[in-house]
Write a structure and sequence with these properties.
Length: 292
Amino acid sequence: MSDKQSEARRPTPPFPAQQQHHTPGITAEMNPQPDHGEKTYKGSGRLAGKGAIITGADSGIGRAVAIAFAREGADVLIAYLDEHDDARETARWVEQAGRKAVLMPGDIRQHAHCDAIVARAVEAFGRLDVLVNNAAYQMSYPSLEAISDEEWDKTFDTNIGAMFRITRAAVRHMKRGAAIVNSSSINADHPNPGLIAYATTKGAIQNFTGGLAQLLAERGIRANCVAPGPIWTPLIPSTMPAEKVEKFGQQVPMKRPGQPAELAAAYVMLASDEASYISGATIAVTGGAPII
């Protein structure tokens, strides 16, 4: 692949003016289109025969991870809110890789739905080897006073409350060698004040994962985090002001946002048997910005 082709897949700001009014956003409306590894990710059987749940798998990081998992040999349950077209596109790529794709729409803030996601995966695959808690909600606010109780609660229920409930349901079915991978963020260590509710949940996720790794070690189940930096997904134009979207990613040393495809390898590694001694870790994928 030439350097020019590589650069074409990794656009740099400024980006065209764009705003979406549906959260978590629609892939088709983004300019430029994100790269989820559709044309580039090559599997090598690292997850052969495994059954996986990925929340927020309709688009962005979740879609990239679903494509990679399928090409590594895993069947995938695609949990998502209501972006049906995006979710069907993810399922198409999973099935094109020769694996089973199960679509599971619904709001993970609903307690019963968290249990239903896990039950559906076990029913469809006959096993549950990998859980990727990736779904998240964020919204930008200029001040603390601008954040309502409802907004704060929505962020926590989506990002950490649902993670606890889905994980609790999942571990009942997981055997030794299973893996949990949670999506944290650079915001866990370097909170963006305009995203204070989101950033606070990401710190909680990192602590939840560290405790979980210790709690589940005797059962042979591993738990880790991936901490992305700025990544070009539909969540960005649907939750940030237009002027922030235009310059998105400029703040990191690489001077650009990451593409979803650039995170997939970290999730695959943590989900695979090759990471058998990695638990309680946070893998930073931040374009050169250090986390502590």
